[in-house]
Amino acid sequence: MHNKIAVAIGLSCLTAAFAREPINTVSEVTDQYKLPNMDAVMGKFTYSNEMDFEDIDGSLSVTEIDFLSVLSRPITVGGDIMLLPFVQYGLTSFDFDGVDNSFPIADEDLHSVSLHLAALKYDKSSPWLYGAWVRAELASDFQHINGDDFTFDVAGGVGYRYSDNFMIGVGGAVLGINGDTWFCPGINFDWVVSDKVRVGLYGPMPVVSYTPNDDWSFSLRGNPGGGIWNITDDNGDSKDVDLSSYQVGAYAGRRLTGKLWLNAGVGMTLMNNITYSDSGGDNDTLDEDMDAGWFGQIGLSLKTW
């Protein structure tokens, strides 16, 4: 399960952002520059310790650096549609330990650069919400860039607000439109239990959060991790490296000043798997499950306007 799925269930992320405080129109959001529970700028560092291979000798440790930023304030189209463009960069470093000389992958530094456009249609006069998301991504070792390094994804969904405190929705994503295409459905709900407690399921991401005051936040949540990158091997052939993982952890956030927050988390990586194959996912050279491991994360975020 890849981290793109967490973004791809477009409705899960789009409608839930507005579930805490109702709005009359998207224009009201644009005027007030208020997007609850979203980051305008975010940077984080994550380290996952040695995950032992189940069937062969060796282990994998993963270091990740991620950066995300919105490119503008919300753009209103047609009076009730909001568009939000943003850019994301990720560096993922693989460190293999204890593998033999026949192991097909060397230590790698892999890059991902992606442009996103999220859209939301919502009016308080109707309980229905509509969301959409598109992404273009370059995921590569940057050794030789061609069409295999690019992927395109789209998602959409619909939500229904039962009350100011509870919303439910369904959505789906079409991933890898230009290659190994597959469809991923998702369901979500967002329940504001009180001013301090919030519970939700956003596609593959369950979250329980507690905010005791304006300066602290705590949460338990699960997040898909990993990704798919295209690399060029020693023979000049195009290969795919596919890392799947699921992170379950406890997180804390502390407001440093204004809208700037320090965030940290710790937990376990589950359902870990790595594959190495010809571009498009054919002819697996490696398909190996890994034992559970531990991860730690620290980062900074600047909340939206």
Salient structural properties:
305 residues, single chain, disordered N terminus, 6% helix, mainly beta, globular
Describe the structure.
This protein is mainly beta and 305 residues long. 6% of the residues lie in helices and 66% in strands. The chain contains three helices and 16 strands. Strands 1-2-4-5-6-7-8-9-10-11-12-13-14-16 form a 14-stranded antiparallel barrel. The longest helix has 7 residues, at 26-32. The chain is globular, with a radius of gyration of 20 Å. The protein starts with a helix and ends with a strand. Residues 1-36 have low confidence and may be disordered.
**What can be said about the biggest beta sheet?**
14 strands, antiparallel, barrel
Radius of gyration: 20 Å
User: Helicity level, as a percent range?
Assistant: under 10%
Q: What is the strand arrangement across the widest sheet?
A: 1-2-4-5-6-7-8-9-10-11-12-13-14-16
Quaternary organization: single chain
Q: What percentage of amino acids are in beta strands?
A: over 45%
Could you tell me the mean pLDDT? 83
